[in-house]
Amino acid sequence: MNIHEYQGKEILRSYGVSVPEGKPVFSAEEAVKAAKDLGKDVVVVKAQIHAGGRGKAGGVKIAKSIAEVEKYAKELLGKVLVTKQTGPEGKKVNRLLIEAGCKIGRELYLSFTTDRNTAQTVMIGSEAGGMEIEEVASSTPDKIIKEYIDPFIGLAPFQARRMAFKLNIEPAVVNKAAALMMGLYKVYVDKDCSLAEINPLVITEDKNVMALDVKLNFDDSALFRHPDISALRDESEEDPKEREAAALGLNYVNLGGNVACMVNGAGLAMATVDIIKHYGGEPANFLDVGGQGSAEDDAKAFKIMTEDGQAKGIFVNIFGGINKCDIIAEGIIEANKMLSLKIPIVVRLDGTNVKEGREILKKANIPNVIMVESMTEGAEKVVELVKKA
Ligand code: ADP
Ligand code: MG
After folding, report:
1. Domain's final residue, options 101, 132, 162
2. Cα(337)–Cα(29) distance, rounded to whole angstroms?
3. Is the CB of 197 under 6 A from ligand 1?
4. How many angstroms does the Cα of residue 107 sit away from the middle of ligand 2?
């Protein structure tokens, strides 16, 4: 789960991590009042959406007067902001953060996340802050500094200081920077984050260390023990189809191509996406139906996968374990009828009750349902059919 920048900053503040003074607002009037309350010469008006890259997209405005705050607030509220992270459809701005302007000396990058190769938390730092860190990591990997954290010891103070020195933070500021790292690490662990990222982490002209931006991602599986975090959920920021699927206990991920994939299990989902790519196709999405559902559930799954018209074909790739192939077959027939689907549905079934499942589909003899023997054959077929469509 993601939260907004201003919510993240409130959490950081409660852990003693220094952030600029600021307040979230929902209207231009509130923005003006918040700016007056701040009483600073420079106020920053920041669009609050669940995506980064706002600065370059015009979502972060520096205002030098109350009149400017009002102008920028009116400009940004209700606007659809398209950033490198939103996708072409962009995200609508419903909230702003009105924040004290900060005199930036240097902009650095700092984050904590899980390194899957070492199965450890890693602290990542870079002097190339403020910019897109993914680009820094791929084009100049030597600019990325890492500290691996022993899960039993936690982040050791010497590691924080070592990071500060490697970031060329001047000696007078090293302790402040190290304290911030310790604070952010505590947030990361206490709140079960999957990512805690500060970009930029700034050294101010008056030698303070501050988080000017923060992105916190939380492990969904741990949310049950953080009601305070769950309460910060902003559903208007989430993909409505992913929400709809989650409500049905299904995992849906939108991928932007034109081959919809209905699978069971995360591993098979990955393999299916890979094999479609291998045959030159582009997955539109995948929907993991998990364990056994009813035919009606399958129909709902098909609806979610196809309703935006993006998918030009469906690949059903199910290995029946808990799922039974005959029930899946009935589900496909039912869904096809209910939704009057016209696009080809390529079906690969294997595992429990596969004979019965295939028999059912054969008998039904539906023109747009094509049965295949293997996953390879299915992927090749669906890509071929979609290309013709
Ligand atoms: P994003 O990562 O979405 O582009 P940021 O919050 O990182 O948004 O802001 C982009 C840039 O705007 C920062 O790198 C910084 O230079 C500037 N900025 C953001 N907040 C402030 C602030 N409070 N005072 C001064 N400059 C700021
Ligand atoms: Mg940023």
Report:
1. 101
2. 52
3. no
4. 10
Specify the pTM. Answer: 0.82
**135 and 108 together in one domain:** yes
Q: In this structure, are 45 and 111 located in the same domain?
A: no
Q: How many of the other CB atoms lie within 10 Å of CB of 274?
A: 11
Q: Is the pLDDT of residue 278 over 70?
A: yes
- Of 76, 101, 126, which residue constitutes the final position of a domain? 101
Q: Is 68 annotated as a binding residue?
A: no
pLDDT for 231-272, tens place per residue? 999 988 888 888 888 888 788 998 989 999 999 888 999 999
Measured in Å, residue 54 CA sits from the centre of ligand 2 at: 8
CB 272 within 8 A of CB 261: yes
Question: CA separation (Å) from 389 to 259, 317, 383?
Answer: 11, 21, 10
- Residue to mutate (ligand 1; options 212, 215, 216, 237; most atoms within 8 A of CB): 212
Q: How many domains does the chain have?
A: 3
Give the tens place of pLDDT for each residue, 31-70.
999 999 999 999 999 999 999 999 999 999 999 999 999 9
Instruction: Decide: 46 and 5 in contact? Cβ < 8 Å.
Output: yes
| Claim to verify: residue 227 and residue 144 sit in the same structural domain | yes
Write the single-letter amino acid at 12. Answer: L
State yes or no: is 197 an active-site residue: yes
Say if ligand 1 is within 6 A of residue 99 CB.
Answer: yes
Amino acid at 280: G
Residues 5, 154 within the same domain: yes
Range of the domain at 39: 22-101
